[in-house]
Amino acid sequence: MFVWLLAFFLMSGALSFTAGILLPLLVLEKLYFFTETPSLLQIVAGLWQNGDVFLSLVVGAFSLIFPVAKLFVLFLEAIGRYSQNGQASIAFRHISMVGRWSMMDVLLVAIVIFAAKTSGFATATTQLGLWFYAYAVLASAASAALIKRSATPVTT
Description:
Oligomer: single chain
Order of helices and strands: HEEHHHHEH
Number of helices: 6
Largest sheet: 3 strands, antiparallel
Helix content: 55-70%
Structural class: mainly alpha
Number of strands: 3
Radius of gyration: 18 Å
Strand order of the largest sheet: 2-1-3
């Protein structure tokens, strides 16, 4: 049962992450005439093109590179769990520190939506991409917890 649950969270998390960065995160309507539906990739690229290189690098690192690295390490750890002695790898121990920042993007989008709704000049609503991204973060956290749980030493 444990292996199937871990496999489910890893696979569904990877698929949801892909959908989360490609699908629109939110709909911004300005003055009832202009509508934007940016995806996470479009937001990072837009920041870069508008000259906000540092912000683009920070958002890209925390929302794209680190989650991909975390998923990669989780997959390797899950595969290695059954071929090694049950010890957590160095990469797994270090990637868990980065995982604490995974919900930063969801929080930022929530703040943008709140700001748009309270300004009166624009409205914002969440889209499917945000929900896929949020699920991917939760699935990777659940996978990490299941892997940590399986790493408890067995006494004989």
